[in-house]
Design a protein that fits this description.
- This protein has about 100 residues and is mainly alpha-helical.
- It has helices spanning about 20-45, 50-65, 70, 90-95; strands spanning about 10-15, 20.
- It has a two-stranded antiparallel sheet.
- Helix 1 (about 20-45) packs across helix 2.
Length: about 100
């Protein structure tokens, strides 16, 4: 996936009491869209063919952006153990505290 080069990703923006880079806000939005889209698909018993490039981009952000502090704050559940051979999307979901039931 090509890096976002839009002017909105440059500089800092007020977010939750801090100044946050636009790239971080874009990554948060992408993560929320991917994961909550999956949540809706699960609830509706529909397949969710997540785009591999999106999954990789969200994984790159979530691997370092979601940790103990976010879990203690109640933003994410505890990570779930999955085999290292699981798909990247399954590992991402597990990292964010979700079971891949598709």
């Amino acid at each position: 996936m090509a890096p976002v080069r839009h002017a909105a990703t440059r500089g800092g923006f007020a977010f939750m009491g801090a100044t946050v880079p636009g790239t971080v806000l874009a990554s948060i939005g992408l993560q929320k869209s991917l994961i909550h889209g999956w949540d809706i698909a699960i609830g509706a018993h529909l397949p969710y063919p997540a785009d591999g490039a999106i999954v990789r981009a969200v994984w790159q952000f979530a691997a370092t952006g979601v940790g103990d502090a976010q879990r203690r704050a109640g933003e994410f559940a505890a990570a779930i153990m999955v085999p290292p051979t699981a798909s990247l999307f399954t590992r991402l979901l597990a990292h964010l505290g979700r079971h891949n039931r598709l």
